[in-house]
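Entry 14. Ran structure prediction on the chain below.
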Amino acid sequence: MAGWMEKLCARAQALAAGQRLHLLIDGAFVPGLHRGVHPDRKVMLFAALPGCSDEVLDLSSFLMPFDPDDPSVRRILQRCSGWPMVSVIQAHEDVKRLAARMAAWTVIEADGQRFHLRFADTRRIPAIVQTLDPGQRAQLLGPATSWACTTRSGSWQAFQFDGADAEVAAFPALDTRQFAVLVEDSRIDEMQALFMRRHPRPFMPAWQGYDVLTLALQAAAASRLPEAALLDWCEFLWREGQVETSSTVADKLVNWQAAQADRV
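Output, structure tokens:
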């Protein structure tokens, strides 16, 4: 966390006149985290949702200005450490205007249904940035020129933008292709979350587990493994807790399938 603060302080000092840094926090990872921030220092993105309650707000993403002199900033970053839940947006807009833009995108329409778009989850940010078209990105981020987040391995990744003064989205929607891309992007994370609930003992760091499951799915696709066996195969390889190569994973899949056949 100390490294984060040092880097953010350095960035804040180097900002051009009128530019600001805002922290985007995904409250779902640490429910109620926002309660440690003064109401005047945060904007809750779920606040305008129909039927929003205190329980919903405790899971809400929220924006707050990065102010190195605000003690709550350091406390928030300490609580975020180790979770894919904090990103930094640079823009000349104040936090309330940026929050209005992002709040409009918390629920989107796709294929005739409404879904929560988890753009505050840093694992989702790269795919969201790459999948939205320029107009949609402008609606979400407006004149923001940078969006930086922690990757699955814990390093920082920054996306640069030209910035645009687009209007706040009225009814944000994704087409079928965009929605499919984002669903696929979340597949491994959701699979790993399931395995971690089944097996609380840590087998490997989350970033390593992601790499293992990526190889498992690639091997499954190459061998045309039936969908019914896919989850069991991925769980088997994940529980082994070893980073493999494509060739060794392919061999293990053959052996695993043979073992499964012997049990029938």
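The chain is about 45% helix and 15% strand. Will compare against last week's run tomorrow.
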